[in-house]
Design brief:
- The protein is an alpha/beta fold.
- It has a single domain (about 10-235), classed as TIM Barrel (Alpha-Beta Barrel), CATH 3.20.20.
- Helix content is about 25%, strand content about 15%.
- It has helices at about 30-40, 85-105, 115-125, 150-155, 175-180, 200-215; strands at about 10, 15, 55, 70-75, 105-110, 135-140, 160-165, 185-190, 220-225.
- The strands form two sheets. A seven-stranded parallel sheet has the order 1-4-5-6-7-8-9. The protein has a two-stranded antiparallel ribbon with strand order 2-3.
- The longest helix is centred in the middle third of the chain and has 18 residues, at about 85-105.
- The two termini are about 25 Å apart.
Length: about 250
């Protein structure tokens, strides 16, 4: 469905449900939105947010979208959750490869489990004779310095675009090591929003902006965070400037 997420056009959820793995998950919007969708009777949300469900009937949906677009894969789940079988992940990647070739879509996969992504690629990569599908980007979330090593794992994947989502940004991050080693081709930053949102210091975002621009890596400021107003869109500025840079797609 069309997305309000600033860095994508569409969301595609062949999997729903997830479980928390680190502090960035504490106030995840999925856990708040899931019950509303269940109450509305939306297919795929009939149980609880922690119940990871495979929805094979949604797999080929991107092939029906004729206009090329950026597609966020599993905004309501994690494709590399341990309850998602490798075969199903392969099916999803096969659809992404086909849809990219036929429709020109760019798929943006975001996971908090890059180790499982590496394990899947090591087991199934040979099924893609031409290598990693060129229009499939993959990123991982890093909310504080403790989880920055996820980027070392992510760098083992041969995707043309590897990115970090520093959202919710919970403290100052030092990512120069990964920015200068070509482990990352894109940096997204955002504060936490919604009930109980933890504040983001603008200086943390400014510092990541500087680290990214110094390394020549595109920087995208999604929003500044907040309880009632996430301060996105025109309100998301650093020193009076919007930062909405995107990688160049293959």
């Amino acid at each position: 469905m069309p997305s309000a997420i600033e860095w994508t056009d569409e969301t595609w959820n062949p999997v729903t449900g997830c479980t928390r793995v680190s502090p960035g998950c504490d106030h995840c919007y999925m856990f708040a939105l899931y019950p509303r969708l269940r109450a509305m009777g939306v297919s795929g949300y009939g149980t609880t947010p922690e119940d990871v469900q495979l929805l094979p009937d949604r797999l080929r949906t991107p092939l029906s979208w004729k206009k090329p677009r950026f597609v966020f894969v599993n905004s309501m789940a994690d494709l590399f959750h341990q309850r998602v079988p490798f075969d199903f992940i392969f099916e999803a990647f096969s659809v992404m490869q086909e849809a990219a070739a036929k429709r020109g879509h760019v798929f943006q996969v975001l996971t908090k489990r890059p180790g499982r992504a590496v394990g899947w690629w090591e087991a199934y990569g040979e099924r893609f004779p031409e290598g990693w599908p060129p229009n499939v980007w993959i990123g991982t979330s890093v909310e504080n310095q403790k989880y920055a090593p996820r980027l070392t794992v992510l760098a083992r994947l041969p995707a043309p675009v590897r990115f970090v989502s520093a959202e919710p940004l919970l403290e100052r991050l030092e990512l120069t090591e990964w920015l200068e080693s070509d482990a990352l081709q894109w940096v997204i930053v955002g504060g936490e929003s919604g009930a109980g949102a933890r504040p983001m210091d603008l200086e943390w975002a400014r510092d990541l902006r500087d680290q990214s621009t110094n390394a020549g890596v595109p920087f995208f400021l999604k929003q500044l965070g907040g309880v009632r107003n996430k301060r996105g869109g025109d309100a998301a500025v650093i020193d009076g400037e919007h930062w909405r840079q995107m990688p160049v797609s293959a």
